[in-house]
Amino acid sequence: MIKYDTIKSELLSDPEVAKEYENSKIEFEIAQSLILARIEANMTQAEVATKMHTTQSVIARLESGQHFPSLKTIHKYAIAINKHINLQL
Which residues form the HTH cro/C1-type domain (predicted)? Predict the structure, then answer.
């Protein structure tokens, strides 16, 4: 099995891919934070969805890095996994 970091490095060696990644970096960082926090909470996407009164597919979209979720949505997610939001500038 190929590791994520290996694939990421290979893809980012392409200047066009690197530029697009940089343009969407915040979305990917948010997605990664959501996923890691959910895993740390030992919860599935379905369990988070139930607590947020939504569907698993909505949680999958939030965690995909393809969308920029609102702070309100991130707050609901945090409550569902019993975490707090730390915002830094």
Answer: 34-88
pLDDT above 70 covers a percentage of the chain that reads 100
Query: Which domains occur in the chain, in start order?
Result: 4-80 (1.10.260.40)
Q: Identify the pLDDT of residue 67.
A: 85
Q: Write the single-letter amino acid at 84.
A: H
> Pick from 31, 36, 76: which is nearest to 52 by CA?
76
Q: For tokens 């697009």, what's the residue?
A: 20
The Cα 67–Cα 11 span in angstroms is: 20
The sign of the dihedral angle between the CA atoms of 68, 71, 76, 79 is: positive
Token pair of 85 as six digits: 């939001």
Better-predicted residue by pLDDT, 44 or 89: 44
